[in-house]
Give the backbone structure.
Amino acid sequence: MGKGLIGKKVGMTQVFDGEGNRVAVTVVKVDGNVVVQKKSAHGKDGYSALKVGFGDVKKLEKEGTEPRWRLNKPRTGVFLKAGIDRPRRHLREFRMPETALDNYEVGQELGADTFNNGDWIDVTGTSKGRGFTGVMKRHNFAGAKASHGVHEFFRHGGSIGMSATPGRVFRGKKMAGQHGNARVTVQNLRIMGVMPEENALMIRGGIPGPNGGIVTIRPAIKKQTT
């Protein structure tokens, strides 16, 4: 629980650490983060959090009509109420202690320097959609043996039924179905580099989603911080 940023996944590259080891990293652009609202536990919301906006919104300029943002009116009104002249496409909330809210102001721009080199973080995004897949691709099943006696059953999941008791298939049984396109959080990733000029972070390893996907970056909840 604490600070956080919204970013756009750029792609993967590699860097070398202090010992000369090659490390794969994912570059995430975090420019354009702005504080939209501060929620207080003593207010009508009942909890303390920071609402952050991210992502450019284009303006619709059509002859004979007044220019307007390509965003619905309720979402646009959130930014107008906060006194922010340029709305953002995405909104996220980051829970934090009441005392930490004093470090932020509505309209404040947040950049890559929100985090430090070496920080442990959790990254949340939407995984790549792979459509309807079988059990071998979706759940890493081994499949049936490809030898004598196996007839058109090489990639099947096997029997899923039961006898008279309980006489049904348990909920959550691993079967073929929709694969990917789901909210995924990868925990305990480390920031290998902060680039303030480019407003980007280099995160060790891979993160969910395709290049250009939107991700949320938070401090790791399973790592002790001082």
